[in-house]
Each structure stands twice: as structure tokens, then as C-alpha cells.
Amino acid sequence: MKKIFVLDTNVLLHDPNAIFAFEENDVIIPAVVLEEIDSKKRNADEIGRNARGVSRSLDALRTIGHLHDGVQLETGGTLRVELNHRSFARVQEMFGEITNDNRILAVALNYKLEEEEKHSDRSVILVSKDVLVRVKADVLGVQTEDYLSDRAAEPNEMYTGYTTIKVHPSVIDDFYNHRYLSVQALQLQQGYSFYPNEFVILKDEMGSAKSALLKVNADANRLEPLFLSNEPVWGIAARNAQQRMALELLLNDDIPLVTITGKAGTGKTLLALAASLSKVEDEQKYKKLLIARPVVPMGKDIGYLPGEKDEKLRPWMQPIYDNLEYLFDTKKAGDIDKILMGMGSIQVEALTYIRGRSIPGQFIIIDEAQNLSRHEVKTIVSRVGEGSKIVLVGDPDQIDHPYLDSISNGLTHVVEHFKQEGISGHITLEKGERSKLAQLAADLL
After folding, report:
1. 104-117 pLDDT, tens per residue?
2. Are strands 222-225 and 211-216 parallel, antiparallel or unpaired?
3. Residues in contact with 98: Cβ distance below 8 Å, sequence separation at least 6, in sequence order
4. Considering the domain 152-225 in this protein, what is its CATH number?
5. Domain boundaries along the sequence of the chain
6. What is the pTM of this model?
7. Which CATH class is domain 4-145?
8. What residues does 239 pair with on adjacent strands?
9. What are the distances in angstroms from CA 157 to CA 75, 83, 389?
């Protein structure tokens, strides 16, 4: 049986195509949602872009028929802008104040009561990304859901970039003797599907200390030894297996897209910077290093800080400068600026200034990529020109964007959608190496 979905404003501002995501069911947009979207359409950021996208979609549907009467969607459902379910009496008994959120709740509640009066079995579901709106809906007895259709994967199913497999010790011996293993043979034995450039840790099922670290090749048909030794890169040596995997991806010129996720203090940005400096300064494989991070929310003006663009950017870019100061072992304040000015091959930018550019022959690092939406990350990755390598770094559990979460952000989407591609590689760093205090803070707080 068809359901009735009442959409909150934040759903449409998060995904302007959400109108068409409910298949053959009926979609209701409260009138107050249109007012809120109208107030956002002039914003110069992602929210403003999405508000304008919703407006265009509704205008196109308006040519089919009157929105307040309901128009047929290609999905088989209908879309209706509500005008006749504004009674606030029942919601006011619970929450009193007439806010936009409460007006949306009132619409959902009134539809629910109307279906009950008709003795209908149709479900009325309020869809919102606002946790408190969902809580209040539950108090009112209205069924509610988060908007999940844009999620890349369930939290416990996220691709980590490596797997640990227990095997008979003879399998490990075969690898060391022949320097490779057949993916097909291991799949038949383990029933596991491997992705290109995925790392595999083999452990002895008998309990001995015998083990091996391998990497699936780009064609996903062989497991091979790591290409690099565990030598330091720009003074940075891998302190655990996952960091070694990260350096393997970062220093491989045949993998132009690398994603690295992990908690604070796991070394994501430092490893990426060390590898990039090795490639740009030592090997001169790339002509320039471009380091950028979003000014959250991305697309906003940098603000009213005094000075020129570089002076305004400095507070936002300071975490990157901190890592560069560590790598260059600077002693005095301002030394890193002199070094970067003298080198000329390192550019630190805000993502605001990357849009519209084509970036060939460069090593690109995007820090704090978890604060990018799907559209933004597509815009950035599509800027990458011939001969460039791009590294997306971030912690999906530290989201500053109001309409993103650990599953729906742009970084997570890149990880999940590129895991089957031979030109990309991913690794999740798990062990904090900044300090014991930092690791405890990441785990306990």
C-alpha cells in the first residue's frame, strides 16, 4: 500500500532530488517548507545551490498541474504542496510555540489523524534529518525516519581498504616462495571478494606468529608484496601496518586517487604531506603541490578578518602549516612562510578558490574532506587534470556541515563508489600515533 511521506526542509536542502526518491508513494511538502527554501535560495553556498535546485524542480512540475492538487511523478507517486492541513491546535497542546518545525509537525500529525478517521491503513511518515524534530514527532505519535537514500553504506559495512584473513600456514609459505598469490585460489578457500588495491593481512590459523602483508593488484586477480620498503619518507616512518599501507598508496604513481580516513591523531595529513613532498621536491614527478581544505561551510565568504586573502586564509589553514613546520623542522615563527615562498612549488588554498580550475601535473591534497557534500567532492575531483594525483583526507566522525553525517558526506561516497576501480585506493587508519593522550581523547571523548 502507498505511503504518505511529509518532507522536512532539511531533506530538500540536503538533496534537491529527494522529491523523486520515494518511488510510487505520495510526497507532501508543507507550505512552510517552501518559505524556508525561499529564504535560502540567495545563499552563495551549497545550501543555496540546493534551494535553487528544488525551486527549479517544483517549477517544472508546476507545468504538469496544480501543485496544491497534486501532480503525478515519473516514479509513479504524486507530489502535493499542502495548503489545508495547517491546524496547529493539537501540536500546540504539546509544544506551545508556533515555530516552523512545529508547523511541519502539525502537517504530518493532521495527515495521520485524517487517515485514521478514514479508517485507512496508509502510513504517514515524517522524513527529517533533524534529530529533535524526529524526537518531537515520536512524542506526537507520528512515524518518522531519517533521509537515508543518499547513504553510501551502513556504518558497520564501510570499506576500510584492508582485511585480515586467517589461513593455513602453507598459504603464507606459498606467498613467500612465489612472491604472489592467486586471488581466485584465496577466494575459493575463503569465500571473500577482493577489491583492486585492497590490502590483505594473512595470519596463521594455527596460532603462530607467521604472517604476511599483501596488496591486491589493480586488476584484482593477484595478491602481491608491497612495492615499497618501510623506509622513512621525508623523515616520517610508518608506525603501524595501516600507515604503511597508506604510504604504499600515496607513493604509487599508478593510483591517481587516494582516500584516507581515520580519527584525529592517526597521521592522515602528515603522511599525505610527507609523501607529496617526496614526489614533488625529491622525485619531481609533479610540478606543484596544492594543499586545500574547506572553509566550513564551503563556499561562504572567508569572513571579515583583516588583511589580504592569504592573511584571511591563515587561521583556516593553520593545521596544514603546523604539519609543514614539523616536516621542515622549523625553529622560529615565520620560518615556514619563508621556506614556502622560496620553494614556490607548494600552494596552500581554500577550496573556495579551486572551483572552475583545471589542475594538471600536480599532487593535490584535500584535507577535512568529510565536510564536503557529494556535489562538492564531484566538483573537486573533476578538476583533476592529466598527470595529477589527488588525496582526500578526513575523519567521517567529525562533521561540521549541518546537513551531512558520517555516511552521507562526500568523502564516504568517494570511498564507496571508487572501491572497485583500479585507479583508486583507500585505507582507514585506526591507531592514534600523535600521543597517548590524543589516542585516549579520540577513544573516550
Report:
1. 998 999 899 889 99
2. antiparallel
3. 88, 92
4. 2.30.130
5. 4-145, 152-225, 235-444
6. 0.78
7. alpha beta
8. none
9. 29, 42, 27
